[in-house]
Every structure is written in C-alpha cells, then in structure tokens.
Amino acid sequence: MLPPQVRSVLEELRAERIRGASWMAKRGAEAYLILANLLEGEDLEKALLELKRELPAVNPTMASLYNLTRFIPITGDASLVISRAEEFLHLIDEAKKTIGNIGSELIEDGDTVITHSFSSAVFEVLRTARSRGVDFKVILTESAPDYEGIVLASELEKLGIEFELITDAQLGLFAGRSTLALVGADNITKDGAVINKAGTYLLALACHDNGVPFYVTAESFKLHPELRSSEVEILERPYARQGYRVRNFLFDVTPWKYIRGIITELGILVPPREI
Amino acid sequence: MLPPQVRSVLEELRAERIRGASWMAKRGAEAYLILANLLEGEDLEKALLELKRELPAVNPTMASLYNLTRFIPITGDASLVISRAEEFLHLIDEAKKTIGNIGSELIEDGDTVITHSFSSAVFEVLRTARSRGVDFKVILTESAPDYEGIVLASELEKLGIEFELITDAQLGLFAGRSTLALVGADNITKDGAVINKAGTYLLALACHDNGVPFYVTAESFKLHPELRSSEVEILERPYARQGYRVRNFLFDVTPWKYIRGIITELGILVPPREI
C-alpha cells in the first residue's frame, strides 16, 4: 500500500500537461524520497515494488520513469533508497547542465533555431548560448492543444532571447527559414527513434527536405534499453472542440535517419552510416 | 469608383476565414454580376478596370481571383459582362462535379482518406464516393486557428461518413495509418507547386515518407499561368494567444515531386518523370 503522500505525487504526474520527461523523472525521484522517509523494512520493500509497477504506467512511453525505477533498488533499507534517489536527482541536474554546454556550441551568431513544444533541455541549451553572448533567434510553435509553446515564449522573453511564435501547421513553412532545429525527447528507443511531442516527426521531415540539421537533446536516462520504436504505445489524452472528440496522441516517432545527432550529457550520438 | 454594393462584396471576401478559393471565385463572379446590373458604358468600363486591380489583391496567392478577372472583358457592354460572369459561375459548378466524379474513382472500400483544412472540391469527391456506396473513412485535422476542419466534420456527419478528427500536429502520426491523401488547392503555380492551407506540405512529406499517395483537387482556374512557386507572396492574418503575437501565414508550398496527381475537371495531371 502506497502512502497517500506518494499517491498524490502519482496523481500530480498523471495530471501534468505542460512539463516534459525530465521534470516527471524529478518528481518521480522525489516520490521515492517521500516514501523512504515514511516507511522502512518490509513495508518499504512492498511499497517500492508497487511504485516500480505504478510509476512507469503513468506514461508507458517515458523511458525516464522506467529507468528511474530500475535505478532504485528494492530494499527495506530506507537510507539506501534515499541516497539513490538523491543521486538520480543530482544526475538529472548535472546532465541538463552538460547538455546545455554541449548543445550551445552548435549555435552561432545569426542562427535561427526552430523548436517544437517545450523541452527543458532545449531551453537550457538556448539559455547557455544566450549567456555566452551568442546572437540568435528562436522560432517556436504554440503547441496545441496545451500551448506549452506559450510558456516557453514567456521564458525566452525573460532572458531577452528574440523569438517568433507560429502555429503548429506552419512548421513546414518556417523550417526553410531556420538554420538549426533543436527538440527534446520523452524517450529514445533501442533502435534510435525519438519519441517526442506529436509534430516533432513533421519538423524532422521538413528539416530533412530543406537541408536544416535536426538535433535532439536527451539526458541518457531517456534512452530506453529495451523498447523498439514498433512497440511504442502512445499515450492519448481526452480533447474536444465544439462538441467533437479530437484525437490527441501526445507523441510521434521520428526515425533515426532524419536525426543529425542526439545531444546527451555523454556527448553527441550520431546515427550509424548504414542508415 | 466601385458602387458600395460591390465594395461590400470585396469586404466580405477580405473578411472570409473558412471558405476556400472556389467559394471566393464564385463571390467574385457575383460581384461582376452586381456591377453590370448597376452600370454601363464608360462607367462600367472604369469600374471593371478598378475591380481587375482590387479583386486579385484580396488574396494575391489565389489564382482563381486572378483568372476570373482575366475571364471578364473590359467593356462598356453590360450584357457581355453578365454572360461571361454567368459562364464562369457555371464552369465553377461543372468543374467541381467533374472533379467529384474523377476523384471518387480513387477511393475504394476500406480506404482511409486523410485531408487537411476544408476544401469544397475534396468534400465533393468524398460526397460522390459516399453516394456511390463506397465504404471508407476520413481522417481530418481541426485546422487551427480558424478550425475549418470542425466545419468539414459536421458536413461529413450529415452524410454519415465515418471520420476521426486530429490536431494538426498529429498529421505525421496519422499519415501512416491512411491509404490515400486528398487536399484542395488555392493555387497551382506555373512550376506545379501547390499553394494550400499551411500544413499541406507537412502532410505531403509524411505521405511521401509512408508511401501514401498524395492527391490534390484543383479546378483548372486555380492553375496560375504566370506565377512561379519562388514568387508566391503568402497572405498572413493577425492571430494572438495569451497576449503573444503568433505568426499566421495561411498557406505553404508543396513541391510537384511530392504530388502523385492533381485532379482537375480536365483529368488528372501527373508530374513529369524527370522531377
């Protein structure tokens, strides 16, 4: 039996609509901290087993939740759980900073960077490039129907980064006016496909057609060690407009061949030649 | 000086947000009828010259308005203007019916037809296929920010055609689940590119990547005899969300090479081999 404090974190994760996989992993790790501060011994062990089932089920396409549950041992030793959860939280922060540094090297004066949805790792890259004094511009989608693009716009505004918001359907029109594409990832499959906010695949195709390099940022805990792109189950959330049900699958699948590189904290992964 | 009755049609055309190039051409032809019923002789001639400038300027990417103004002679003979305008209106209706017949032959039992935005010619194809008893399904986008996809959904509902609405960003995800793509056109350039609602190019790319045949419906008066795709000026309408300006270019450009065929009332145009 999970304590109500942990249940409420699970509910919060299920209800979250704007923030991505890194934030989810962070809140997940915090759920472990809460759990290990409440229980110990056999009770803790049972609760850990339950969390190991329930946490990845919040979003089955999210590798970060899956990898988090593998990172924490099933044990009655509360202090061990706490130290592992804290280590995971530390890794998340460190990975993002390193990705910001590596990714910002790709942005040069005069660049126009196009993105889709709100990735905290992409934001870190843009923030780092800005703090290095690089003079660039961002094109970003409003990202219907939850409009997390508007949230990103307000963050860019605070940093004084020049930006242009577009509707999602204009991704093709604006890809050709960009010099670099940068998106986040919820999950990287075993065969190198990027699972990210629906529309990412369209941006990748338009970049490919226009010769614009398409990069993905992903902390290494987003690499799923087992899942193949053909096995991905895509989460759907209810959405309606003017009384009509509108399908609302959150993610799409971008094949390896359209990706110039995946920026991780360990370096940039590039697709093998034969693809 | 254009009479106020004609001015108000121009205003109506400028304000229209849902209906496409065929409807615009029809209202344009009706403006000529109004004009020729009010004026004659030199006054008519001067007003015709003014309309020839103003009508295409309502939407410079719309070949149908341009071709309409070339179809009507500059003359003081009101009865000639009326007969030509009526001929144009007749051609519009006939062309749509013929496109409905030709296009419906492409749809077979079990097909899933994907479309974007609301094209009256695509609707005619679907209506004709349905009246022939073909058993198929339609996937359509809501088409933000004016949501003309919702209008199409309500029309399909009336005809009992099965459909699934999606957000625009899911075009890539659903292209792979479709067997045929059908879109309208506002304009076909001299070099064969299709100018249509922004997002059409993304659908074409996703269909190409998934091996799904991508067809365009276009009455022959949408073929622009002079304009090249590189010269297209794309109309933008104001749009904002949560206080932020969002770019809202209405159209994008789909190159000839991604198009399996353009269904016109004269037959299906196919791209030359060398493309």
Radius of gyration of chain A: 19 Å
Most extensive interface, chain pair and sizes:
A-B, 41 and 41 residues
Low-confidence stretches of chain A: none
Q: Could you give the order of strands across the largest sheet of chain A?
A: 3-2-1-4-7-11-12
CATH homologous superfamily label of the largest domain in chain A: Translation initiation factor eif-2b, domain 2
Total number of β-strand segments of chain A? 12
- The level of helicity of chain A is 40-55%
Distance between the termini of chain A: 47 Å
Average per-residue pLDDT of chain A, rounded, comes to 95
Order of helices and strands of chain A: HHHHHEHEHEHEEEHEEEEEE
Describe the fold and architecture:
The structure is a homodimer of 275-residue chains. The first copy, chain A, contains nine helices and twelve strands. The first copy, chain A, is an alpha/beta fold and 275 residues long. In chain A, the strands form three sheets. A seven-stranded mixed sheet of chain A has the order 3-2-1-4-7-11-12, with helices on both faces. In chain A, strands 5-6-10 form a three-stranded antiparallel sheet, with helices on one face. In chain A, strands 8-9 form a two-stranded antiparallel sheet. In chain A, helix 6 (120-131) links the parallel strand 1 (112-115) and strand 2. Chain A is globular. The relative contact order of chain A is 0.13. The model of chain A has no long low-confidence stretch (mean pLDDT 95). At the A-B interface, helix 7, strand 3, helix 8, helix 9 and strand 9 of A face helix 7, strand 3, helix 8, helix 9 and strand 9 of B.
